[in-house]
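Tokens for chain A. Residues wanted.
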């Protein structure tokens, strides 16, 4: 595989703010358009804008643009935090936004060190690692507003949710990375066949879910959720009763 090394290009302030506005707008529309579920697909626009924002002059600027993007995305959606925690809600919004800033900083640093094409292979991995860590591994374990949650529920008929929420984010950034950098790669015929076979394999994995959803009508199910922070096992039955 031969890689065409393009000249290094970075975003200026004006374009950076435009991509920031685009990413935030796509995120808000994807998460607020209840009556138009297809608008959830705009979450790919958020991912696209976020990757574009990593193309900064230095890592620090990439971090701050990622931090600002995360804050402007999360704060409106989680504004009820302000009613609960008052001014302290700003800290919680910044904690969430920090992970977006970290993603932008790591991708920017990788691109500066190894080039954009090599970094393209790392982008989905970096995003999935950060998303999984902030959702499952550290103390707050906050998994709200992940990319996979914004996708329309109708897509479950295509078996899309069988891959899992974190893998949906991984697949989304794989698509975005391919859109950015695939044109810069000169693949051999064998490599093109390998890529095509991989796509066919992934599609075949989703087909059973599509066929099952069309032949099976599930009854309406009502669910009630109770959120508790690290309760003891003795308390759980009392709360559920």
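Reply:
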């Amino acid at each position: 595989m031969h890689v065409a090394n393009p000249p290094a290009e970075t975003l200026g302030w004006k374009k950076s703010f435009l991509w920031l506005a685009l990413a935030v707008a796509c995120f808000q529309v994807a998460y607020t358009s209840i009556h138009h579920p297809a608008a959830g697909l705009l979450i790919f626009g958020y991912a696209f804008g976020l990757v574009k924002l990593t193309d900064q002059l230095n890592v620090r600027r990439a971090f701050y643009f990622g931090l600002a993007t995360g804050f402007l995305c999360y704060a409106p959606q989680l504004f009820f935090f302000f009613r609960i925690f008052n001014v302290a809600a700003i800290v919680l919004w910044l904690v969430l936004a920090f992970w977006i800033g970290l993603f932008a900083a790591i991708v920017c640093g990788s691109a500066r060190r190894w080039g954009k094409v090599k970094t393209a292979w790392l982008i989905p991995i970096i995003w999935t690692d950060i998303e999984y860590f902030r959702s499952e591994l550290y103390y707050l374990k906050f998994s709200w507003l992940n990319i996979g949650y914004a996708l329309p529920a109708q897509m479950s008929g295509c078996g899309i949710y069988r891959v899992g929420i974190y893998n949906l984010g991984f697949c989304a950034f794989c698509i975005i990375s391919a859109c950015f950098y695939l044109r810069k790669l000169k693949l051999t015929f064998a490599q093109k066949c390998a890529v095509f076979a991989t796509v066919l394999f992934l599609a075949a994995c989703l087909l059973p879910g599509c066929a099952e959803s069309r032949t099976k009508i599930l009854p309406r199910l009502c669910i009630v959720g109770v959120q508790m922070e690290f309760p003891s096992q003795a308390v759980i039955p009392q709360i559920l009763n």
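The chain has nine helices and two strands. The CA atoms of residues 14 and 44 lie 22 Å apart.
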